[in-house]
Design goal:
D-Maltodextrin-Binding Protein, domain 2, six-stranded mixed β-sheet, three-stranded antiparallel β-sheet, 11 helices
């Protein structure tokens, strides 16, 4: 009897500790992991989003980049962090799903993270510069049949999609290794490559770059008339940026983070940075994000099967 009372008291104390920590959250700085190099669109957005989140939470949110392996390095770190709300991440849903689906050395799955909310949409596109002898996707494909063409190779999902298109169109492109959008841009502007995949960083460069096609199923906000890979090849990339935490995060803290994320999206500075890079907002609440992720996973699995 005394043992049961002691166990019950211990359980109550533990519960009170969890509730108390959630109620006081945050009482120290929060680290926001960005699994990409500084200078890209994800990092650019994160620097402003972190301030807005800190304002809404009544604390400090510090951005830390952990690039590598198409976001796998940063997400691996997130998945192993203590689920107390002090290590979170701002990343893209596509690679979060794609990496464990396609890479044997990735030690996490989507189940190892807790998705808090969708924030905005990347504007993934096939891009080039106006000085090239092709201005449309059809012109690029025609030119590629008789001329050598270099393309940025950033690995991961974009590489598979590009290889899929090349195989369908029976063309060959020379892949030039490129570390993310931050390196792709000078390569493209400097003429080292002829065209590239972009997650949206091209929109910061105005008429210095042009869009050949959209990788999104629903097209691009800035270039709605660009052909989509969904229309032409039946494949599309998910374009959602998401706030995530380690699995096991207490519901109380998850709810605080979700509410802060929703409010932060309307922060004037964050709204302005999205306007500058022309990324649309797209809030996906936690109540819908699991079903949405399952749908995206199914579509990406179809691409994997088609490219084996």
């Amino acid at each position: 009897m005394l043992k049961r009372i002691a166990l019950a008291a211990a359980a109550a104390t533990a519960f009170a500790g969890i509730a108390g920590s959630a109620g006081a959250y945050p009482d120290k700085p929060i680290t926001l992991i960005v699994p990409y190099k500084a200078g890209g669109t994800t990092h650019t957005k994160s620097m402003v989003l972190s301030k807005a989140l800190g304002k809404e939470l009544g604390g400090t949110v510090v951005v830390k980049t952990r690039p590598g392996a198409g976001s796998a390095v940063g997400v691996t770190f997130l998945s192993k962090a203590k689920p107390d709300g002090y290590t979170i991440a701002y990343t893209d849903l596509g690679n979060l799903i794609w990496n464990p689906m396609t890479k044997k050395d990735v030690a996490y799955t989507v189940d190892h993270v807790r998705l808090i909310a969708g924030i905005s949409e990347y504007q993934s596109a096939l891009i080039t510069t106006p000085d090239k002898p092709f201005k449309t996707l059809d012109e690029l494909l025609a030119y590629s049949k008789t001329n050598p063409v270099n393309v940025a190779d950033m690995g991961g999902m974009s590489k598979v999609f590009l290889n899929y298109i090349a195989a369908k169109e029976n063309v060959k492109w020379t892949a030039i290794p490129t570390r993310g959008g931050g390196e792709m841009v000078p390569f493209l502007l400097g003429g080292k490559i002829d065209f590239a995949f972009s997650g949206g960083i091209h929109q910061k460069h105005g008429d210095k770059m042009i869009v050949l096609a959209s990788f999104l199923a629903n097209g691009l906000a800035k270039d709605p008339d660009a052909p989509t890979t969904q229309e032409r090849y039946g494949i599309a990339m998910p374009g959602n940026s998401v706030l995530a935490a380690p699995a096991g995060l207490p519901d109380e803290i998850a709810m605080k983070l979700e509410a802060a994320a929703k409010a932060a999206m309307d922060d004037p500075d964050f709204t302005q940075v999205l306007k500058n890079i022309q990324f649309p907002k797209r809030f996906i609440p936690s109540s819908e994000i699991a079903e949405f992720t399952a749908e995206v996973t199914k579509k990406l699995q179809e691409v994997v099967e088609a490219t084996k």
